[in-house]
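note to self — DONT lose this again. spent like an hour looking for the file last time. sequence + predicted structure for the chain T wanted, 91 res
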Amino acid sequence: MISGEYFGWSYGWAQAGTLGFLLTSLFVAVMYTAFIFSFTELTTSIPHAGGPFAYARRAFGPVGGFIAGFATLCEFVFAPLNHCLGYWCLS
């Protein structure tokens, strides 16, 4: 489901069936809601620009902040590439 509608929904539904897919979707919705509430708490307690970098720097120091920032950068660079390769491989 992370890859998007075209890569995840159809396969998940076919493998899990309607009830299994519904239960999984509800579980993911609960986990995402918990993530949103915790992220909102972080943004109000650490009001600095930088997202995960700012939060990790506050919690783990400069090295932890660098690792979190670099991981975020890698995600933003390689996620679109992953989607393009997935589309290319499936077509």
